[in-house]
Structure to design on (50 residues):
């Protein structure tokens, strides 16, 4: 498929690839952030004064 603005298919593919990379980075970062939060909850629960 060609890009309707300039007719070059490479630009559209580069844009898609960049979007996929950015989305994957956000998902990886978000997953690690969530895992860290869950780890923190377990840590605080283990060390809570009961």
């Amino acid at each position: 498929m060609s890009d309707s603005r300039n007719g070059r298919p490479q630009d559209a593919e580069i844009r898609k690839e960049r979007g996929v990379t950015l989305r994957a980075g956000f998902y990886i970062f978000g997953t690690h952030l969530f895992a860290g939060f869950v780890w923190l909850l377990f840590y605080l629960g283990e060390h809570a004064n009961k």
Q: What stands out?
A: The chain is about 75% helix and 0% strand. The CA atoms of residues 38 and 44 lie 10 Å apart.
